[in-house]
Amino acid sequence: MRDVDVLVIGSGAGGLTAALACAQAGKTVVVCEQHYMPGGWCHSFPLGGFQYSPGVHYVGDLGPGGDMRAVYEGLGLAKHLTWLELNPDGYDHVLIGDDFKFDIPSGFETFVSRLIDTFPAEAAGIRAYMGTLRSVAEELKANMGKSRKRDLLSMPFRTPNLARWGMRPLAHLQNKYLKDPFLKAVVTIQAGDHGLPASRVPVALHASVVNHYFEGGWYPKGGAQAIPKAYMRELKRHGAEVLLETEVAKILVDSSGDRPRATGVQLSNGDEIRAGSVISNADPDLTLRSMLGLEHVSSKTAKKLNKTKWSLSNLSLFGAVDMDLEAQGYDSGNYWYNRTTDIEATYAEAERGSCLKNAEYEAMFVTFTSLKDRSKVKGTTHTFEAFNLITPDVFKKYAGSFGSRPEDYSEMKKHVLGAMLKTAEHVVPGVTDNLVFSDIGTPATNRYYVKSVDGNMYGTEKSAWQVGPWAFQVRTEVKDLYLCGSATLGHGVAGATMSGLVAAAKVLRKPMKELLSHHDGDTVLWPADDVSQWPERAQKAVATAKKKTVRQAASA
Fold first, then answer.
1. CB burial class (10 A; 0-12, 13-18, 19+) of residue 63?
2. CA distance 136 to 203
3. What is the 3-state composition of the chain as percent helix, strand, coil, each rounded to the nearest 5?
4. By C-alpha distance, which of 293, 301, 281 is closest to 255?
5. Which contiguous run of DSSP H or E holds residue 410?
6. At 537, is the secondary structure helix, strand, or coil?
7. Which element (helix H / strand E) includes 345?
8. From residue 232, how far is each of 14, 30, 87, 243 by CA, in Å?
9. Residue 17 near residue 501 (C-beta atoms within 8 A)
10. Rg of the chain's alpha carbons, rounded to an integer?
11. Burial letters 421-449, b for 16+ CB under 10 A, else e
12. Tell me: domain 57-106+312-457+527-556, CATH 3.40.50, correct?
């Protein structure tokens, strides 16, 4: 048994951020991670001789004045990271059927102008719709942290768009201002970044997600693993420990006072670590029900856990293809495909789980990681990742079977591979015939590696009454126990990172601004598609990698 100031459960973006902020404040910190590598959804893994990053496809707000830029610089991480800007003329490509394409560009005004150029008859509605989204996002950001009664009472006057539209379904806003089904599909398709259709997602949530990318998207050079690697270097420099393959079985509690107090954790091997504060980056259900025990929380919290809905999950295709994608016009942008303009039907099918049996799928998100990071190109062999939404419910029967999956699981994966490749043909014709490597991940895979409830992708479902004030709060009713991660302030890299900062601020009793005072390097941004703008040494590395053959790439 040993004593530390702060014990962090889980090494996702939230946990690593909380740990680093506490360590930089002079606290002794230990992070316990059940996986054999750090990062949570931000980790990368080798498969078939290639590298894949299942949870990071782009990060926004890294330009001048961006929130994520301020965080990485303020925590002293910027010097360890290089960010590659996705194609500014189309960081997201929208493909509807086989004939319609729209490129979402960097820059809010550029985006609005392109929408109007494409749908000139709806110019007024486009301006009103997009302006409302941006206003809601800005008002939401300005209102963060305001909880005093007078602040809440004055909210309708300070934040009129947020008050009017914030909790209403996105579809209501779209139906007020937009008519063309292709236009609606274009401004809805990024809903895949939060996992809910327009009929169910609150305007405030969708607005905050798309606003995060209005000025473009960036990918970490080296893949997602570059993010936890940067944290690990700084954590080590500040004396913090990250214990891998170290699963927390129980949160220790002292119930002798006026309310329960977290005093540390017991590991799965029986060892105990005492701590002044415990911050859990695990899902609240795992934290409060499994590790803490519902006997230590109020009936209100127990009811909240029992009623909580968790987000959709994903079927994942990790592949490599021998095709000269650059010559065919593909670039670093993400490709969002939907068979029809009916995005709503795509989500309905995912929530039913019926798509598991389909010969091909209604929708797919495809990203070419070797075009985002040209240093990963091997000859003409490119890596790609493709995802399709699905309810995790149909995979519950496979819980606990990792390493000894039943035969029907293997048969299901074969079918899913065929269906996903057939769908991917709409994005990259010829991908099946030129495939070098492929493998499939499922919600059961997610559950094993990141311990999310049932293998969900975004924590709690981001529906009304599960976000904002109704989300799980960072400070729990158990003294010295805090939560961070995608079920609290927000999901994705940005949301989880911010939640970790808030958790650290509460533990340290310091304002967040004070935690971001370790700037010792500026953010490094390179264009993903123009290697000629990279430093000479990096250009040479790309040139060398391109000379490798397919055989060398597969056996590397």
1. middle
2. 8
3. 45, 20, 35
4. 293
5. helix 407-424
6. helix
7. helix 343-352
8. 13, 12, 30, 11
9. yes
10. 23
11. bebbebbbeebbebbbbbebbbbbbbbbb
12. no
CA–CA dist 151, 255 (Å, integer):
35
Spatial CB neighbours of 308, under 8 Å, sequence gap ≥ 6? 284, 285, 460, 466
* Pure H helices in 279-406: 284, 299-307, 343-352, 369-372
Read off the tokens for 34.
Answer: 């059940």
- Asked if 47 and 317 count as a contact pair (C-beta separation under 8 A), the reply is no
Q: Enumerate residues 6+ apart whose C-beta is below 8 A from 546.
A: 377, 378, 379, 380
What are the pLDDT tens digits along the chain (556 aa)? 679 999 999 999 999 999 999 999 999 999 999 999 999 999 999 999 999 988 999 999 999 999 999 999 999 999 999 999 999 999 999 999 999 999 999 999 999 999 999 999 999 999 999 999 999 999 998 876 544 444 444 555 578 999 999 999 999 999 999 999 999 999 999 999 999 999 999 999 999 999 999 999 999 999 999 999 999 999 999 999 999 999 999 999 999 988 999 999 999 999 999 999 999 999 999 999 999 999 999 999 999 999 999 999 999 999 999 999 999 999 999 999 999 999 999 999 999 987 788 999 999 999 999 999 999 888 889 999 999 999 999 999 998 898 899 999 999 999 999 999 999 999 999 999 999 999 999 999 999 999 999 999 999 999 999 999 999 999 999 999 999 999 999 999 999 999 999 999 999 999 999 999 999 999 999 999 999 999 999 999 899 887 765 444 444 4
Q: Which residue has the tokens 């270097």?
A: 233
- Can you read off the two tokens belonging to residue 221? 């050079």
Q: Cα(284)–Cα(482) distance, rounded to whole angstroms?
A: 10
Order of strands across the sheet that contains 82-85: 218-220, 82-85, 524-527
Contact 227, 493 (CB under 8 A): yes
Report yes or no: 443 and 454 within 8 Å, Cβ to Cβ: yes
Indicate the burial class of 510 (C-beta count within 10 angstroms; 0-12, 13-18, 19 or more). Answer: middle
The residue type found at 362 is E
State the first-to-last Cα distance of the chain, in angstroms, to the nearest integer.
Answer: 42
Residues in the chain: 556
Long-range CB contacts for residues 137-146, cutoff 8 Å, separation at least 24 = 137/204, 137/207, 137/208, 137/210, 137/211, 138/211, 140/166, 140/204, 140/207, 140/208, 141/208
For residue 120, count CB atoms less than 10 angstroms from its CB and return exposed for 0-12, middle for 13-18, buried for 19 or more: exposed
CATH (residue range 2-48+223-308+459-515): 3.50.50.60
CA triple 494-497-501, angle to 5 deg: 135
CA atoms within 13 A on the CB side of 461: 19
The Cβ of residue 137 has, within 10 Å, a number of other Cβ atoms equal to: 23
Q: Roughly what angle, to the nearest 10 degrees, separates helices 67-74 and 492-508?
A: 50
Q: Among 231, 162, 214, 217, which Cα is nearest to 497's?
A: 231
Q: Which residue has the tokens 């703008």?
A: 533
Pick from 208, 202, 173: which is nearest to 464 by CA? 202
**Would you call 361 helix, strand, or coil by DSSP?**
coil
